[in-house]
From TrEMBL:
One of its GO terms (molecular function) is biotin binding. This is Avidin. The keyword Metal-binding does not apply. Forms a strong non-covalent specific complex with biotin. Belongs to the avidin/streptavidin family. InterPro entries: Avidin (IPR005469), Avidin-like_CS (IPR017889), Avidin-like_sf (IPR036896), Avidin/str (IPR005468), Avidin/Streptavidin-rel (IPR051764). PANTHER family: AVID PROTEIN-RELATED, AVIDIN-RELATED. Signal peptide: none annotated. The keyword Hydrolase does not apply. It comes from Sula dactylatra (Masked booby).
Amino acid sequence: LCCGTNAESPLLQCVLTGRWTNDLGSNMTIEAVNKAGNFAGSYHTAVTSTTNEIQLSPLQGSQHRTNEKSQPTFGFTVNWSFSDSITVFVGQCFVDKEGREVLKTMWLLRSHVDGIRDDWKATRVGTNVFTRLQPQK
């Protein structure tokens, strides 16, 4: 590949479609991105703060569609099937210097609370790094 000591390779395109895993062991599948930049998929988390059984959860998202951008920005929402909470992720799809696709994300998790007095503890923030689970065919 190109470019010696560069941190990333701008010549290769990062594609969201496919199967991904993150630094916590959670897995996600992103279906095809349509012409408008919208996509759907599923998320299977490896971590939870509830005692409920973890279930596959749906996700909906959007990618910034610009032909000149090979490393697009994106966002998606996961509606957790096993709890009354929602997580929104934002990030960018990068190609690293070895040619591997990497999704760098930041998320907000909103959990249900019983009243406004508990609002202060209802939102969490964090980061995840996703790598492709299997090569795209």
